[in-house]
Amino acid sequence: MHRTNIPSSHPRAKSLYIRELLVNGFKNGMVVQEGLIAHGRGETFDYLLGEGTTETAYTAIKAACSLLLLADHPVISVNGNVAALCSKDVVELSHLIDADIEVNLFYWTEEREIAIEKELKKMGAKKVLGTRSGGSARIPGLQSERRIVDQDGIYKADTVLVPLEDGDRTEALVKMNKKVIAIDLNPLSRTSKAATVTVIDNVIRALPTMAIEAKQLKQKKGQILKKIVNEFDNTKNLSESLEIIRCGMNARQR
Ligand code: PTJ
Hints:
Radius of gyration: 17 Å
Bound molecules: ligand PTJ
Oligomer: single chain
Order of helices and strands: HHHEHEHEEEHEHEHHH
Distance between the termini: 42 Å
């Protein structure tokens, strides 16, 4: 795949490398043009958060993994950006938490769906749900293409992980009494506010960290996992992320 010559010594090398993954995903037909713009919004928040997984995000990651391990039927929802940035991590996490993987696109085309399915399978996914040839169901009250979900996947799931999402589906899934875990760099987004647990972090860092955490939490008893979930307060956690942004901005101004 095409790579520009980003010197590793460049102060923004990591950020430029992430951009390149998305551009390659776009060239491969997985990412939609709007996905590149959405990444720009995420990048801004990442910059303001300090471009690292914060303690606050880590607390949410623990709650998210506990919720996923307690679930009867967890599903990881994958869109174009997630496929381009972290297909391998999605597959690894799905194995660890015994979750289904489902492709769900806002800007749906059959070609994109096929390209994403191919990438996930290349990374080791045995089964990928959500392709139109499979049985499909509708999320009630949702107008976008995202409403079309797999009958045996998101529709039946009790817990859905939505890395990098647009708001209305999260709200609709919560209305269906599902637990929703979001990964979103924007603590002010509707997704972040509506989800059961929101991890304010870049998917590219959050998903591998979730895999490490899930491995450890798998050894714990259900009671301990329930305690972690019960003690987690999403609204408080989001306020803490906003505070990190505020303090970071003040510190940089000086
Ligand atoms: O592949 P599709 O067709 O399903 O479309 C995917 C996009 C991302 C284009 C679509 O879902 C969309 O338009 O999303 P939004 O409404 O722009 O929301 C994306 C959210 O993800 C925003 O709140 C961004 O701040 C956030 N975000 C962007 N990049 C990252 C991110 N959060 C975590 N990690 C990122 N790398």
